[in-house]
Each structure stands twice: as C-alpha cells, then as structure tokens.
Amino acid sequence: MFTRITQxxxxxxxxxxxxxxxxxxxxIINKLVREAGWVGAVMQNFVQLxxxxxxxxxxxxxxxQVLTVISKPKLVGWQGSTLYSRIAELxxxxxxRDNPLDLETxxxxxxxxxxxxxxxxxxxxxxxxxxxxxxxKVN
Length: 139
Known about the structure:
139 residues
C-alpha cells in the first residue's frame, strides 16, 4: 500500500519518505482499510504504510480506522502475526508525538489499547498505565 519502494530519486513525495501530502491519498487508504482491514495481509500493508508515514499520519484518523477494523466480527490472518504489537507501537508513537492528546483522540487510542490487551498484547498493558494516558478516562 504505497510503500514497496522506499527510495526513488525522481519522486517528490511518498517514495522518498516525504509523507506530508498523505491527505492526497487518504480517501483511498481510508476506504481500503475500513472495508478490507479485517484481512491480515491488508492490515499488514496498512500498518507498514502508517509506520513509514508516522510523522505525518493523523492520530485521530488512524484511531478511527483501526477502531472500524477491530469492530469486525472476524479478523482473518491476524492470529500469530505481529499486527497487535505493531499497532501498539504506532499507538505509543502517535500518543508521544501528539502529547498532550486531545480528549477524544486519547479515548479512541485507549479503546484500541483495551482491545489489544484483550487480545493478549502485554506491551499494551504497560502503555495503558503510562503517563501518556493517565489523565484520560474512558466510560
């Protein structure tokens, strides 16, 4: 998903690590991840894209996309993958990058963390208790 080539000298954006124009392709990303993110291979590519673009990827958009995906009844190809830890890693990065978090984004990221804990991701348990989320309460 926009990330196979990491260096292309003629490119002005995306392939050379310049993701400041991520908003230009966000409608495509949004539709794809919300509709097919339940498939492990699609989500792996999405997480890789977010990792490449993490300095420019909007935290609230990421949270909304992930919350949509994890609300699906069945996640195919996720078991035994690194998706849980990679999502936790991105949640931590985005929370640190946007610290202090606005309340709504913080709540959304905490809901993702809660879900990750339910899936057995231990890193998320310590992240939930971190200073980043201490002041945010989810009802």
